């Protein structure tokens, strides 16, 4: 008697369907319900902006948790390794304090960002909106790995960053 082989395409489809049914909680086992997370299970939004990959905010409607557009422009520029976009996110007379070191205006901010920010990985851990901007708790890895946590306090004026204060968390 000749054995029948299942074509690889059919076998792959069957395996995928079986895996999907299990992961959707299709069974009545206790793990089905426990494995599924709901939006209310999310403690805070986490946005990663590693060099070379896009920001990945948690799905949400425009709400109080949305990152201020000027701060988001900064996060996006770090992710894209776009020095010009990062500088453009700042008001021309902006002031930046990086753990006590002061930088003023586009030229100084450009030099600082080129030496210390571009090429790093920035992950937003928490967003705390305020009336004139936001404070982000972030993990910043200057070389793309490792890193440290810091509070980035953004003051926004005319849709651009007027002041940015960076302090270790």
TrEMBL record:
<feature type="domain" description="SnoaL-like">
    <location>
        <begin position="72"/>
        <end position="163"/>
    </location>
</feature>
<keyword id="KW-0732">Signal</keyword>
<dbReference type="Pfam" id="PF12680">
    <property type="entry name" value="SnoaL_2"/>
</dbReference>
<feature type="region of interest" description="Disordered">
    <location>
        <begin position="28"/>
        <end position="64"/>
    </location>
</feature>
<dbReference type="InterPro" id="IPR037401">
    <property type="entry name" value="SnoaL-like"/>
</dbReference>
<protein>
    <submittedName>
        <fullName>Nuclear transport factor 2 family protein</fullName>
    </submittedName>
</protein>
<feature type="compositionally biased region" description="Low complexity">
    <location>
        <begin position="49"/>
        <end position="64"/>
    </location>
</feature>
<feature type="signal peptide">
    <location>
        <begin position="1"/>
        <end position="23"/>
    </location>
</feature>
<dbReference type="InterPro" id="IPR032710">
    <property type="entry name" value="NTF2-like_dom_sf"/>
</dbReference>
């Amino acid at each position: 008697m000749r054995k029948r082989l299942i074509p690889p395409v059919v076998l792959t489809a069957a395996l995928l369907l079986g895996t999907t049914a299990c992961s959707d909680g299709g069974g009545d086992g206790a793990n089905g319900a426990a494995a599924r997370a709901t939006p209310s299970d999310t403690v805070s939004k986490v946005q990663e902006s590693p060099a070379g990959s896009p920001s990945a905010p948690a799905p949400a409607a425009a709400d109080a948790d949305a990152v201020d557009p000027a701060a988001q422009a900064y996060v996006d520029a770090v992710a894209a390794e776009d020095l010009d976009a990062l500088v453009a996110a700042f008001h021309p007379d902006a002031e930046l304090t990086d753990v006590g070191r002061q930088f003023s205006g586009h030229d100084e901010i450009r030099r600082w960002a080129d030496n210390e920010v571009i090429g790093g990985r920035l992950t937003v851990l928490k967003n705390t909106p305020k009336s004139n901007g936001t404070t982000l708790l972030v993990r910043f890895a200057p070389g793309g790995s490792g890193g440290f946590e810091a509070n980035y306090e953004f003051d926004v004026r005319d849709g651009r960053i007027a002041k940015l204060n960076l302090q270790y968390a």
